[in-house]
Specification:
288 residues; alpha/beta; 2-enoyl-CoA Hydratase, Chain A, domain 1; 2 domains; 7-stranded mixed β-sheet; two-stranded antiparallel sheet; globular
């Protein structure tokens, strides 16, 4: 979209995705992570201090609370629907134990956090999926939280901003999980029919039933650089079609070239871009 290209003109080398930085000074006692792009070892403290970015521009995954901290204005987030959590409708072997373990390790009770917030002063409803809770997989609780958030936003005439990251539907809940695709999509449609704005930011990876439902239903769809976005896995597609896939298939850049998303939004400039888009749509709504 031309307006997004205008809004997102890089103002310096940092916004273009790279920057010069002093070599990371590793503390022998501190854990490090190797960047898949430039292959440098970087202390975790340096990564966290730089919004989970490498100096080469590579975007590491980040948990929902980290993303909330760099997206919402300080002190404005009010959580909603925290009481909704997963059940075990199919009595799937080992599922309850897995949920308990994941809740402890991720420090979240479900794979998405929802609430209201302000982004550079612009009021909105916000959901952020948690990659460290069963890879953001969508079970009944995730679908219920997101559905309720859209219903809340529709009643109060608020826009919705959503950050997606998911391995798809949660197999331990079977058909109950798959039904969340239709439920969330219906809530998005009612929100849209009310003339309200929905913005999605696709992060790595966004796949499966989440891609096939609310992730790709935004009025404007952004994606982080290098994010993998798709439905079935690339290997499954190759085995089914018996054809080699194009280079970069299912990356954000490939999707942009083929018209599936509107813009690629590097993490450092996301907040400003989101607030500008919220402001534009608020003004359009207010002016009738």
């Amino acid at each position: 979209m031309a307006i997004l290209d205008f809004l997102f003109q890089p103002k310096n080398e940092l916004e273009e995705g790279g920057r010069s930085a002093l070599p990371a000074q590793a503390d022998e006692s501190e854990p490090e992570k190797v960047c898949p792009n430039c292959h440098k070892s970087i202390p975790l403290s340096r990564i966290w201090a730089e919004q989970n970015l490498c100096s080469c521009g590579y975007h590491f995954r980040m948990n929902a609370r980290q993303r909330l901290a760099i997206t919402a204005d300080a002190g404005t987030f009010a959580p909603l629907f925290d009481e909704v959590s997963s059940s075990d409708p199919l009595s799937f072997p080992g599922y309850r134990k897995k949920l308990e373990t994941t809740q402890v390790s991720s420090r979240e009770n479900e794979a998405v956090i929802c609430g209201t917030a302000r982004i550079e002063g612009e009021e909105c409803c916000l959901f952020i999926m948690e990659p460290y809770f069963m890879m953001g997989s969508m079970g009944s609780a995730v679908g219920e939280r997101i559905t309720r958030l859209f219903e809340y936003a529709t009643e109060r005439r608020l826009p919705v901003v959503g950050f997606t990251v998911s391995g798809g539907a949660r197999m331990q809940e079977g058909l109950v999980s798959l039904m969340q695709m239709a439920k969330t999509s219906a809530a998005v449609r009612r929100h849209s029919d009310a003339g309200l704005f929905y913005l999605t930011v696709l992060t790595d990876p966004t796949t499966g039933g989440v891609t096939a439902s609310f992730a790709m239903e935004g009025d404007i769809i952004l994606a982080e650089p290098g994010a993998v976005v798709g439905f079935a896995g690339a290997r499954v597609i190759e085995q089914t079609t018996r054809k080699a896939l194009p280079k970069g298939f299912q990356t954000a850049e490939f999707l942009l070239d083929h018209g599936f998303i509107d813009a690629i939004a590097p993490r450092r400039t996301q907040k400003k871009l989101i607030s500008q888009l919220l402001s534009m749509h608020r003004e359009a709504r207010d002016n009738g």
